[in-house]
Amino acid sequence: MSDVLLQAENVGIRFGGLQALEGLNLTVRDRELCCIIGPNGAGKSTFLNLLTGTLRPTSGSVRFLGHDIAGLPLHRIARLGIARKFQIPSVFPSLSVEDNLKVARWGTSSPVRPVGELLDLVALGSRAATLAGELAHGQKQWLEIGMALAIEPRLLLLDEPTAGMTPQETLATAQMLLRLKGEFSIVAVEHDIRFVRALNCETLVLHQGRRLRSGPFHDIEADEMVRDVYLGRR
Amino acid sequence: MIARDRNWLLIFAVCAALAVVYPFIADGYQLTVIRDALIFGLFAASLDFFWGRTGILCFGHAAFFGIGGYIMALVTLNDAIPLGSLLGILGAIAGAAFVAAIIGYFLFFGGIRGSYFTIVTLAMGVICQQAAVSWSSVTGGDSGLIGIPPIAFDLGEIHVDLSQDLPSYIFVASIVAVVVLVLWSLSRGRWGTVLTAIQDNEVRAAALGHNAPLRLLVTFVLSAAIAGLAGALYVCMAGLVAPDLSGLLLSTEVIVWVAVGGRGTLLGPVLGAIAIQRAQQTISSFNPSLWPLLLGCVFVVIVFVLPDGILSIYARLKSLFKGRRQAQ
Amino acid sequence: MRPKACSQACANASQVLPDTMDFVVTTLLNALTLISILMLVGLGLAISFGLMNVTNLAHGEFVTVGAFAVYFVQSVGGSFWLGLAAAPIAGAVVGCILEFAIIRHLYSRPVSTVLATWGVSLILQQGLELTFGLGAKPVTPPIEGTFDLFFTVYPAYRLILIAIAMLTLLGVVLLISRTSFGLDIRTVIQNREMAEGVGINTRRTYAIAFTFGAAIAGLAGGLVAPLAIVLPQMGVNYLANAFFVVIVGGVGSIGGLVAGSVFVGGLTSVLNYQISPSLAQAIVLLAAIVAVRLRPNGLFNGASR
What we know:
Chain A: One of its GO terms (cellular component) is plasma membrane. The complex is a heterotrimer. In chain A, 34% of the residues lie in helices and 28% in strands.
């Protein structure tokens, strides 16, 4: 079990009287790719906040490389090797694309990939001098993935990486991630099923704050109960 | 980006050349006027380094100017201290930095930004002025301290004596030039870029591994240290220190210099300080209470008409012509 | 008849007791005076700074204008009470003009609001100085003399001030909790878009709330005029302290306002007995900063980090 990177055991969180999440387990091994899916309001983002230490669970535990990271300052968590892409694309609008990536590289003590390589990875090579605020929505999402890569993470957490993207952009993003697969662990929270199908990885399905099913995506997709609550009859 | 850097260096070179030529055409009095204005320009640049790069407005920056001034005065007026001028300057820098470090620590690490920061620093300025007035056994109260000697020290082979107009002008002008150049290279390089990122989205910057509160704190301390240096230089040139130097009015004026000169340009605030003090002397000679009134109007006008400072008129005209040309 | 020794001892004890009681009661009442004023000044700031997110650096001038209103009415022969009635009106007029001419255009530009309102503050100060001349303005209280409170004698006017302040605050609480306008304000504060959705004119609500806060600050200025040194520059001290009240107490509740006022006013009054006022101010500033560091959401909003 030495290759376990992130382990959530029996995690739950309660906001006032509301039990938002309950009894969730997730094990992310080194260089593994997995997805968390579920309908809106299933608690996906809350779960991600627990995994990144932004929130502290009221029951159970979350450990990254064996350490409790809940409540640590954000920059310390980043330096441990956890990168996060936010749900709303958050880049630095008044800096150029290149400077955005530079700022990300400066955040880590040992950047590896040069800016040029990062630009190519996220398909923004031709926009290096553009102000990030002037990018199209999908390009902002990609830039943010590039920034997360720049800090050379051990674990990359993506909160709805394809929100607001066109179907083509969604597929391109999936291919981007598949190319990176094996370099570090990736956890993606999504509700776009085409994207998850393209990744075809271990998947955890949340429903009303609890685990509904987990396993490889093709098993999940075939599951009647998952189809009922989530995939719908559409 | 590159063109902007070149333009900045060009303007800097022109200003430096003017500063070199000026002693040949000006008499002693005019030289001291510009010298004192340059010290306030240094003060303005110190505020701009913080405000311009972080977007957080410090409304009590004169407190650091005043702290620097009083420390300088107390050290040089004490005959028991050797190398008074040199230690005084160092003490002034350290004292201002120390106060900024304490206040900044609690505010930045407490998550205080924006308006809250502005308010607390405003209060800090008010209190510093009150302290200067009421702690009269040390500060000389309302009338302040007089008889502060000009900067003079021997350090091995180096003999510095600034009792004459020309040497003091050269000394001040060189310090201003060096500090502005250093601040500029800091703010266009890695330090400033990360500060801009923090200003854009602090949470994002932190999630990339940047310790945002620490960086803001260091920037604030550096800014206060330079304000302290400016205060120390000023009291030696003026020969006196008074509570006004840490007062709200000076804090207000320095904001106007920066706002009029152009926030974030470093050079603009220096020029703004020189130009506005010139205007102030003319206007105050009519009626001293007219100046604050006019200052108030300037604030309102800046906000509504020229949010990016006087230098932005040029950029606006340029874009106007460009727009016309494109329209044709 | 008691034994002589006892009566002596009793007399001694009762002499020590009234002295400490005198001190305690006087300090408490002084603190209460300051707390009352801070609550009134802070109320308007809690509305503009805390709820509308507008940093109004001209708020102190509402206090000044209120004090000058009392001075002006007295100087033309009117009574103090007439002046006190004019004070909130003067504050409201200035506040209304300020909101209409400047603040409503800058809701989305916080730093610009700071600069513009500071400009207005300077203009008002100098305007008052040019109109009324240099120097402190005398304002006489409506009642001279003291009131015997058993443990101590205390200036009667200060007791009246405390009473008026408390009644005003009570009135505000009732206004906000019981009237339809109060409901509008609470709705706008909680969710501006939603309020617009249900047909509340948020712009008008903001304007009225702002003017209302200015009027209360003007009233505070009128009340404090007989005790304070009435100068065009008097506002800035109230401005700084009122901001501390709002910052320390947290925004969004009358409870926070009271807690902040008690913290700032109480600490200032107690410290003023021991040390010089400016040192006391510095300590209050430090205490406020530390309090904010420990409880970023305010003393009253229990959630600490």
